[in-house]
Amino acid sequence: MFFVYALWSEVYDKIYVGMTTNPDKRLQAHNTGKSTYTKKFRPWKRFYLEEVVTKVEALKKEKYYKSGWGRKKLKSELENWQSGRMRQS
Length: 89
Fold this sequence. Notes:
Elements: E1 2-9, E2 14-20, H1 23-31, E3 45-52, H2 55-65, H3 68-88
Antiparallel strand pairs: 1-2, 1-3
């Protein structure tokens, strides 16, 4: 199994998209500075996670979410996630 994920940096209002086989371990790597690009935008919160069967499919999904249409969808997902968090507080 592979996972495509999206992270959000609340401090910098940035979205990062990636893929992995272990989403929890990968989030920890982003938040401990082990990823060169993401370490300067810490802390990260995962707001989107999608499971796919093959690596090829994961790469295609990752590429889509990095495109204009994919970014638009992720921004919508982020807004839904944020509104859910506000309701729980």
